[in-house]
Amino acid sequence: MSSYLHELIHFVMGFTIVYFINVFVIKARHFYYCIYGGIIAVLPDIEKLIDSIFLHSMLVIPFASILLNIFISQLYKHNKYNFLTTYMISIMCLLSHILFDFLENGVALLYPLTKKEYEYAIFNQVDYILLVIFTLIIIFSFFSTVSSTVFKILSTCLLCYVIVLCISKQYLHMQLYQKYNSQHITLLETYPSSSETFCWNYQIRTLKTWYDGHSLLFGKLQEDSQFNNK
Ligand SMILES: [Zn+2]
């Protein structure tokens, strides 16, 4: 179930990107293209089903988008957008996928040069606040009477949410460094708890000891367990 909701988040992100381009740049509402954007944003995980991660790489996306658009233009001859517009839409929607994966559990940004995964985990596989905000944007997008102010408010909420999570994560890192730095930290991982909302989990390894713990958003560090390195 959670993997479907995860894909739903990718879809609504792609949908929203195209919707904003429609409303604020092109000044028209083409819902086919919003759905197109949503599907494009899900494509990298469909590719994963065949054990391939090319579409998760920033290096591959510019070329993949060209191929994708040649394919779409052959398939759908009544394209209302020009090639450059659909190309930019494809790139942005694919990048939105990478961005969410980067903010979730990591992504091989420079594949095939390296398989190293980069991450700045602030979201769980399914972040319900994110899902609700994007879903509201989609629902409101079907009502032409809803003013663009509503979308600006929703976008501001989204931005504030991401900023609060980032600041809270940095605050957690600061606390961890203050507490453990004298023991020579060799590994530090922080990620949102999958069981508790507004809670971080952390793992920290020093030269002698491995610590697991958690902390509420802007809360105090709570050590859960401690192991000595072998
Ligand atoms: Zn992915």
TrEMBL record:
| Residues that span the membrane, as ranges | 7-24, 53-76, 88-113, 125-143, 149-167
Q: Which Pfam families match?
A: YdjM
Which keywords appear in this protein's UniProt record, sorted alphabetically?
Answer: Membrane, Transmembrane, Transmembrane helix
InterPro entries the UniProt entry points to: YdjM-like
Q: Which domain of life is it from?
A: Bacteria
Q: Where is the signal peptide?
A: none
Q: Quote the protein name from its UniProt record.
A: Metal-dependent hydrolase
Organism of derivation = Paenibacillus shirakamiensis
